[in-house]
Amino acid sequence: MSRVLHRSGAIPPVAVGGEGIYLHLADGRKIIDGSGGAAVACLGHGNQRIAAAIGKQAATMAYAHTGTFISEPAEALAHIVLDGEPGGLTHAYFCSSGSEGTEAALKLARQYFVEIGQPRRTHFIARRQSYHGNTLGALAAGGNMMRRALYEPILSPAFSLVSPCFAYRYKKADETEGQYVERLGEELEAEFRRLGPETVIAFIAEPVVGATTGCVAALPGYFRRVREICDRHGALLILDEVMCGMGRTGTMHAWEQEGIAPDLQVVAKGLGSGYQPIGGVLIAGKVVQAVNAGSRGGFMHGHTYQAHPVACAAALEVQRIIREDNLLENVRAMGARLESALIERFGNHRHVGDVRGRSLFWALEFVADRATKRVFDPQLKMNERVKRAALARGLAIYPMGGTIDGKHGDHVIVAPPYIASAADIDTIVDRLGAAVDAALAE
Ligand SMILES: Cc1ncc(COP(=O)(O)O)c(C=O)c1O
Fold first, then answer.
1. Which ranges of 237-359 would DSSP assign to H, the alpha helix?
2. How many CB atoms neighbour CB 277 within 10 A?
3. Do the beta carbons of residue 163 and residue 184 sit within 8 Å?
4. Which residue among 20, 146, 268, 363 has its CA within the 20 to 30 Å range from the CA of 79?
5. Which residues, at least 6 apart from 75, have a Cβ–Cβ distance to it below 8 Å?
6. Cα 350 to ligand 1 centre (Å)
7. What's the rounded Cα separation, in Å, for the pair 388 and 150?
8. What Cα–Cα distance (Å) separates residue 342 from each residue in 15, 254, 274, 354, 431?
9. Which atom of ligand 1 is nearest to the CA of 130?
10. Neighbour-count burial for 154-193, b at 16+ CB within 10 Å, e otherwise
11. Which residues pair with 396 in a beta bridge?
12. Residue 209 and residue 213: Cα distance in Å, rounded?
């Protein structure tokens, strides 16, 4: 009997080991980890270099409180991640998860405005069908209606939600992409006006929406329009790259493909590849200066395990490997292969309405009817069925329901590790194809 509280009632299989793209189960099966969990294990499993770095740090200096000391791994990690000050991001705050990263970004943004003499800024604008974490602040910032529903009465009213940029579902048939982007810009502009532009702290969004809608990238020009609106109203732009960042979409930061940069960027999953729990915020110089020179003598926030030396040592090794082995090149090459294989296999599939994503971050959205985009009855839990059918064929993927509004719609995500080979990609798509057909045949 398991005494660990699981997400669902059923007890899942026990994972006992792993090597490369494979996870090993207690019953002897070897499963291809086709999504690295939730796009986490970007370097695959059983990497001995990372394990050695963790062991060495744990044996040398496992913990020193950041109120009194700094540590070498945290400093080195900040340096490697911020090398060249990408987009004007000069400092990093490390914590233990994506949710903690979001909380820190929200609080940094609020403190920034207090320190520069604009304390009336108390609102955040976010988007429906987004996700920024499960702690109460991050949950309030997110628009994942399924995850919010139960807690709605205790979520902060400081957050309001506008429409996502989700062309497959929400671009009107008689609208060009440019007109759709303009309509979304108008809606954001109207929300600033409704709140009073001088009261808005920041707009927060995922550059490529992750689990909630399934790898939805914005249309060209959308983030340039968002950046321009934020700048005009003196608000900050927070980008949540917890899932889509750290190389997953072919560039180190997803925003590099949008022609803009954020003021605050939340990172996690790919930062440490799951070898240790680690997240963080990358911070623009102007925010750091204001907070450090301000009334509180620094950032008024903290966690016992922030910038944990062992977690930072693990992430440092992950980041060194990505750079030394030129893995972003492989991400782009294997991403192109994954894209064409998925389109070939599912592009005309009668129950796959959309195949979308970037590089090694792809989703299939399932529909009962392709022409009308009608969804399956949520009771069927189609995404779960595909997940089970895939697992039975030796492939782990990441499923989610409520694609459209938190209730309706089904999708699954594939997010192979950056070390995947061409043969691995082909096997993943083969198994996924068989799983989708088997789940539909049920
Ligand atoms: C975009 C995004 N932001 C934030 C989070 C929260 O991260 P964590 O689960 O590590 O707290 C997630 C997790 O899935 C995510 O995908």
1. 269-272, 285-292, 309-324, 327-346
2. 16
3. yes
4. 20
5. none
6. 32
7. 27
8. 28, 21, 26, 10, 11
9. 1
10. eeeeebebbbbbbbbbbbeeeeeeeebbeebbeebbebbe
11. 33
12. 6
Q: Give residue 371 CA to ligand 1 midpoint distance, Å.
A: 33
Q: Give the global pTM.
A: 0.98
Residue labelled with tokens 């190389």: 247
CA of 206 to the centre of ligand 1 (A): 10
| pLDDT for res 380 | 97
Closest CA to 261 of 287, 279, 291, 290: 287
Q: Is-contact 390 396, C-beta < 8 A? A: yes
Longest Cα separation, the chain: 64
Tens of pLDDT along the chain (442 residues) come to: 788 888 776 788 999 999 999 999 999 999 999 999 999 999 999 999 999 999 999 999 999 999 999 999 999 999 999 999 999 999 999 999 999 999 999 999 999 999 999 999 999 999 999 999 999 999 999 999 999 999 999 999 999 999 999 999 999 999 999 999 999 999 999 999 999 999 999 999 999 999 999 999 999 999 999 999 999 999 999 999 999 999 999 999 999 999 999 999 999 999 999 999 999 999 999 999 999 999 999 999 999 999 999 999 999 999 999 999 999 999 999 999 999 999 999 999 999 999 999 999 999 999 999 999 999 999 999 999 999 999 999 999 999 999 999 999 999 999 999 999 999 999 999 999 999 999 999 8
Output the CA 266–ligand 1 centroid distance in Å.
9
Q: What's the CA gap between 136 and 169, in Å, rounded? A: 28
Using CB atoms within 10 Å of the CB of residue 392, give its burial: 0 to 12 exposed, 13 to 18 middle, 19+ buried: middle
Number of neighbouring beta carbons within 10 Å of residue 304:
10
- Give the position, in ligand 1's atom list, of the atom nearest the Cα of 268: 10
- For 2, the token pair is 């398991």
For the record, the structure tokens of 267 come out as 């990172």
Q: Whose CA is nearest to atom 16 of ligand 1?
A: 243
What's the number of CA atoms in the CB half-sphere (13 Å) around residue 237?
A: 24
Residue 197 DSSP code: G
Q: State how far Cα 285 lies from the chain centre.
A: 23
